[in-house]
Design goal:
Layout (H helix, E strand, L loop, with lengths): L1 H51 E4 L2 E17 L2 E5 L4 E6 L6 E2 L4 E5 L3 E3 L4 E6 L6 E2 L4 E6 L4 E7 L1 H4 L7 E6 L7 E11 L2 E7 L12 E18 L3 E2 L2 E6 L2 E6 L2 E4 L3 E4 L9 E5 L2
Antiparallel strand pairs: 1-21, 2-11, 2-15, 3-10, 4-6, 4-9, 5-8, 6-7, 8-10, 11-14, 12-13, 12-15, 13-14, 15-20, 16-17, 17-18, 17-21, 19-20
């Protein structure tokens, strides 16, 4: 009987031991699977992140800070025919698109003959012959074709940085390959708006009044400064990879253009890897 009890106890111990071995084997298998899957997941995550980001190092160089705006080509001289009394249009001598010389006849009413005060081109005609015009009504408009400038309206913060003599650059939608140099000639307010005029001695002959131009006015230039892509700055911070780890670092920026910003403090090093979102 004692031997039977010993045999029974031995069988129970063996069953328990086999159960633990099975559990250990399962755990070992799970660890093996995890050891294979985890690196794959890390690689996939890295690939997905690398599609959205790239890393670059800061660079040294110059930066030009500019104020940007959309301007309109405006002639220096514009003349509009108006009559002080009502009358009938008797004769029209010039129509839109016609070039006229100084003193050429433009419009004759039943009481007056209007002549061109300068050389230019007729741009607008609002009445036809035999029609009646009322006092003060515009009848015809003419403008100079050569003596024109670009006029743009800026907000108060921007216009405070603008003064006559600053360099400017003009570009037109149909002349994208050309960058036309200019200079700020006037800064003034009118009717609650802040107006800047830019002149250029190299305006292409294709440019006509009322065309629009992209204007960049240079307000600052700094040489040999630390620059990073503007896209890297998010809420005053930059993500940097150091020793294989990402960290966010507050930065102080100075001048900026459309692509780059100047770093004016010592928060970054020239060998830092800057995380930049892809376009």
């Amino acid at each position: 009987m004692l031997q039977n009890r010993r045999s029974s106890g031995y069988r129970e111990q063996k069953m328990i031991w086999n159960w633990f071995k099975k559990k250990d084997s399962n755990s070992y298998s799970l660890w093996k699977i995890a050891g294979v899957v985890l690196p794959v997941l890390i690689i996939i995550a890295f690939v997905l992140l690398s599609r959205n980001y790239e890393t670059v190092t800061p660079r040294k160089g110059p930066i030009v800070e500019a104020v940007y705006g959309l301007g309109t080509v405006t002639p220096r001289r514009t003349f509009t025919v108006k009559t002080g009394v009502s009358g009938r249009i008797e004769k029209i001598y010039a129509r839109p698109g016609d070039q006229v010389s100084s003193n050429d006849p433009l419009i004759r009413t039943d009481s007056l003959l209007f002549r061109a005060p300068f050389e230019g081109i007729v741009t607008n005609l609002l009445f036809e012959e035999s029609e009646i015009v009322m006092p003060g009504s515009p009848i015809l408009t003419m403008k100079t074709m050569e003596d024109h400038h670009v006029e743009l309206i800026l907000d108060q913060e921007s216009v405070l940085r603008i003064r006559p003599g600053l360099k400017a650059e003009l570009s037109f939608e149909t002349l994208r390959a050309e960058r036309i140099p200019g200079v700020v000639s006037r800064v003034y307010s009118s009717g609650g708006e802040f107006i800047v005029e830019v002149e250029s001695d190299e305006m292409p002959a294709e440019v006509l009044p009322d065309m629009t131009a992209d204007v960049a006015i240079q307000v600052a230039r700094r040489e040999d400064v630390m620059l990073i892509p503007q896209r890297a700055v998010q809420r005053g911070q930059v993500q940097v990879v150091r020793s294989g780890l990402r960290k966010r670092i507050p930065v102080k920026i100075g001048a900026a253009d459309a692509e780059w910003v100047e770093i004016v403090d010592d928060s970054l090093k020239m060998d830092d890897r800057i995380v930049v979102p892809r376009r």
